[in-house]
Amino acid sequence: MKQQYRQILSTLKPFVKWAGGKRQLMPVLNENLPKIFGTYHEPFLGGGALLFHILTKQNKQKCSLSDLNADLILSYTVIRNRVDELIHSLKIHEKNYYKDSKSYYYSVRESNPGDEIEKTSRLLFLNRTCFNGLYRVNRKGKFNVPLGKYTNPNIVNEENLRFVSAILDSNRISIQCRDFEAVLGDVKKGDFIYFDPPYQPVSQTANFTSYTDKDFAYGDLSRLVKLCMDLDAKGCKVLLSNSNSADVIDMFSKKPWKINKIQATRSINSDSKKRSGHFELLIKNY
Ligand SMILES: C[S@@+](CC[C@H](N)C(=O)[O-])C[C@H]1O[C@@H](n2cnc3c(N)ncnc32)[C@H](O)[C@@H]1O
């Protein structure tokens, strides 16, 4: 059993590819983690790259996780509570996709299932087969990404889904759909909060913020900055990712905030040649 658990931990990874996901930045994020902390809070959870990294290192870690995207949060809870039914539903998608990928993809994209298993298997299926694995919705909250060019997409990653289900099935982990500011009511001194919000646009063309039907606006950034100050005053350890934006640098220019410029790869540009290196910010108060 112990060996099985160790195997789970060494291969655990996010179950969705999420725009702005942090898998490629894991070495530098890892170097910037606090040495000790109480509960881990991730209020812009997305695909949870840092969460899974932390659980790989410390599987008993207490975690409080949230995101405003209701379909995403539903996926976490369905994977935790009903993974067998989910895998069964994904296998049906896989079978149909391989008969006629184009017409099947668009029929699933147009569908709007009410059942929670079907909703989650639709999200995971579209995530595996859509262009660039990019989750994006329009103002009506409708997923609007075209079919991707894959010859053999891994639609049912059964092993990883079971690993994720096993690790999330713990009373040490809470998962909620809510706005990021609610984290203030949950934290205690010594807790660690990682914020990975939709990034502040640095140019007219770099304004990807459509994870939900509401864009992340300048007012949200101001709320986030105020929240970071309040968390600092409570004695929490705060780590924040953002774009290399002059506004953000200015907002965190005072003590105790330390700003690191780190090299990153932008993975959501549709032109793979433009996904090369750029700088982004890693800001912390410890
Ligand atoms: C950059 S992504 C996080 C990516 C994540 N770190 C990963 O590794 O996949 C930002 C997330 O913030 C969520 N979000 C946007 N506005 C929010 C809000 N007001 N409150 C909470 N979450 C929000 C989006 O749904 C999205 O999942």
Rg, please?
Answer: 19 Å
Helix and strand composition category: alpha/beta
Low-confidence parts, pLDDT < 50 over ≥5 residues? none
Percent of residues in β-strands: 5-15%
What is the CATH topology of one domain? Answer: Rossmann fold
The rounded distance between the terminal residues' Cα atoms is 38 Å
| Global geometry | globular
CATH homologous superfamily of one domain - what is it? Vaccinia Virus protein VP39
Strand count: 7
Q: Please tell me the overall pLDDT.
A: 90
Name of the level-1 CATH class of one domain: Alpha Beta
From the coordinates shown, what is the CATH architecture of one domain? Answer: 3-Layer(aba) Sandwich
Biggest β-sheet: count, sense, barrel? 7 strands, mixed
| SSE sequence, one letter per element | HHEHEHHHHHEEHEHEE
Q: How would you describe the oligomerization state of the chains in this entry?
A: single chain
Strand order of the largest sheet: 3-2-1-4-5-7-6
- DSSP helix fraction: 25-40%
Please, how many helices? 10
Small ligands present: S-adenosylmethionine
